[in-house]
Amino acid sequence: MLTAFVALCGAVVYGSADFLGGLAAKRISAIMVTAVSATSGLFVLVLVLPFVAGQWSVSAVLWGALSGVTGALAITLLYACLAIGPMSILSPLTAVVSAIVPMTAGLLGGERFLAIGYWALGLALIAVVLVGFVPERGAVRPRPVGIVMAIGAGILIGTFIILIDQTPADSGIIPLVMNRFVSGGIMFAVVGLTAGRSLQRRRAERPAPRARSTNLKTGVKLAIACGVIDVTANLLLLLGLRLGDLSVVSVLTAMYPSGTILLAAVVLRERIAPVQWLGLVLALTAAGMLAIA
């Protein structure tokens, strides 16, 4: 029960972070959003690190660093596809893929449940699909490039969860510190390499100076907030993996689109179709079943 609760809390927090990341990526590049959010998240972790016991080891550093590489690529793709939109469809598509990858790894690794648990996993995947795909007339539909990016982000997010699950139980938050350090370093290196090209493109477009400055400031602020919220979700994910099974935590964490969808509906006025509401209800039902399993 505690594992399910922690994973669901993490899902809600992830959804909020992704919403902010998508908004930030509309104003600044997805690469910059990832770099800034990784840095703000690292700052939070460094402040928390002295108060959380953790054993430094080669395994903790290695798996954390590898997850940082995967996470940097995953979040860049995710924020880019959310910026393209619609968030209410691309976010759930990413989620279902990100759930299948670690769930499969966990089951192949020997994780087992009661019969109700397998039904719950299947129901959870159906729920995410219902939330993500809207066949009704008038519903917002994504562009093909957004779909491809969402699938790629899902695969990488699932891989990130698997890598975090490999970290030693006594490592505390050290793997997350390495994750943020590596992902931030990678993304700022990319930002530096592409700065000249971006500057030339902006000069060619010649946007209004005030509008450009406003977009930059707003985008950076959103990215900073995104990083703080996202690292909170990472902490909940790590705790959930330490408490329970990879397959359960990954599927419940994949419920994060619910937070993104609700925020998109309230803030961006994106329409939520009845089939999506059904998917959200099924998702909560599946979460309860998994808690029992």
Short key terms for the protein model shown above:
about 290 residues; mainly alpha; 11 helices; globular
| Unreliable spans | none
Number of strands: 0
Distance between the termini: 9 Å
- Portion in strands: under 5%
SSE arrangement, N to C: HHHHHHHHHHH
Question: What is the general shape?
Answer: globular
Tally of discrete structural domains? 1
Total helical segments: 11
User: What Rg do the Cα atoms give?
Assistant: 19 Å
SSE-based structural type? mainly alpha
Assign a percent range to the helix content. Answer: over 70%
The average pLDDT is 80
- What does the largest sheet look like? none
Report on this model:
The protein is mostly helical and 293 residues long. It has one domain (2-292). 81% of the residues lie in helices and 0% in strands. The chain contains eleven helices and no strands. It has helices at 2-25, 30-48, 58-84, 87-108, 115-132, 144-165, 174-205, 209-243, 246-253, 257-267, 274-292. Helix 4 (87-108) runs antiparallel to helix 9. The longest helix is centred in the C-terminal third of the chain and has 35 residues, at 209-243. The model has no long low-confidence stretch (mean pLDDT 80).
